[in-house]
Specification:
With 391 residues, the chain is an alpha/beta fold. It starts with a helix and ends with a helix. The chain contains 15 helices and 13 strands.
Length: 391
């Protein structure tokens, strides 16, 4: 008897519902174009916002780091795995973000799992945007605090929820900075104002804002001119920075305590020298010039305007994440297949990543796309969209 046979049935059900996730294989470096499943296609679904994943300076920095430190740290950082390169990147990121200190983690996901259980516990309440990322949701669960969801990006809903839980020992308001599926931006000033009324802690996960929003890509807190006013900032190195890893920025006291009690920091090996060296080079590039960020936004405005002119619904995005709203999961998957047949790689996103009936193609713009690339993509969307009756 196959005790795991039910999993085969579950997978078949996903296929029937149009919810099966086709995972394609990439055989070249991330760039405007790359090889996927044996075909050279235009890349419209990578988080490589600035093109850093294949940047010559980052590759050279990674090689230098390997030559100096080897391929791995050899131990968890709290025992014998903290390298001088880790400390250099932490200091550089703190300066870049305008905070007192920063701690590096293995991923942005790990960063949320590390910090949330240290801030709150069973006697406390977390107020979480209803569309927050899965890593925030899991970090909230690990904290064992009561979790109250407020209406997406709604300060009035947050105020009501805070008023209804005024007896909690400690209260924490947490939100994504840029919401990864819709591309909209949290109304951070208004949320901060409400939190201040109730003396609540504030935390922002800016995974999709790092390297994208703010002066030279310093993130959503800088974008709103709120540097120094948010208690906890979580970021990632795996998107605009082009590498791997996550980090938490904040007060020196917060970071010191995380190094003493943050479980992902204490019980899992830290970043490799190659990742650390490459990330350090990415920060240096952004400190030198805002050109990569400027090109990213020029491409974003051009492509969004083109999609709207064709008649596509691009939701409420205000960032390089542009959702092409389809609704039906099967139709969204078919649109993705037809785009790929026309050498445009843009994946369908459906439940459970987004709510049922909200399937979409999530387009990710990049600074390395040329105008010709974007025109090629728009032509592909027009052809497939007309064939399916979407426009």
């Amino acid at each position: 008897m196959d005790r795991l046979g039910f999993l085969v049935e579950e997978v078949e059900a996903l296929k029937e519902q149009g919810l099966y996730n086709t995972i394609r294989t990439i055989a070249s470096a991330q760039g405007a174009w790359f090889e996927v499943d044996g075909r050279r296609v235009l890349n419209l679904c990578s988080n490589n916002y600035l093109g850093f994943a294949d940047h010559p300076r980052l590759k050279a920095a990674a090689k230098r780091a390997i030559d100096a430190f080897g391929v791995g740290p050899g131990a968890v950082r709290s025992i014998s795995g903290t390298q001088s390169l880790h400390l250099e990147l932490e200091q550089r990121l703190a300066t870049f973000k305008g905070t007192e200190a920063t701690i590096l983690l293995q991923a942005g996901f790990s960063a949320n799992l590390a910090v949330l259980p240290l801030l709150v516990g069973p006697e406390d309440v977390i107020f979480s945007d209803e569309l927050n990322h899965a890593s925030i949701i899991d970090g909230c669960r690990l904290s064992r605090a009561k979790v109250v969801r407020y209406t997406h990006s709604d300060p009035d809903s947050l105020r009501q929820q805070l008023a209804d839980h005024s007896q909690a020992r400690r209260r924490l308001v947490v939100t994504d900075g840029v919401f990864s599926m819709d591309g909209d931006i949290a109304p951070l000033p208004a949320l901060l104002e409400v939190a201040a009324e109730f003396d609540a802690l504030t935390m922002v996960d800016d995974a999709h804002g790092e390297g994208v929003m703010g002066a030279g890509g310093r993130g959503i807190v800088d974008h709103y001119g709120l540097v120094g006013r948010i208690d906890v900032e979580v970021g990632t190195l795996s998107k605009a920075f082009g590498v791997m890893g996550g980090f938490v920025s904040g007060s020196a006291a917060l970071i010191e305590y995380m190094k003493q009690r943050g479980r992902p920091f204490l019980f899992s090996t830290g970043l490799t020298p190659a990742d650390t060296g490459a990330a350090l080079e990415a920060v240096k590039i952004l400190e030198e010039s805002d050109e990569p960020v400027r090109r990213l936004w020029e491409n974003t405005h051009y492509f969004r305007s083109g999609l709207k002119a064709l008649g596509f619904d691009t939701g409420h995005s205000g960032t390089p994440i542009i959702p092409v709203m389809v609704g039906d999961a099967r139709q969204s998957a078919e649109l993705s297949r037809r785009l790929f047949a026309g050498r445009v790689f843009a994946q369908s996103i459906a439940f459970p990543t987004v709510p049922r009936g909200k399937a979409r193609i999530r387009v990710m713009n990049s600074a390395v796309h040329s105008r010709e690339d974007l025109d090629f993509a728009l032509a592909g969307f027009e052809k497939a969209g007309r064939e399916l009756g979407l426009i």
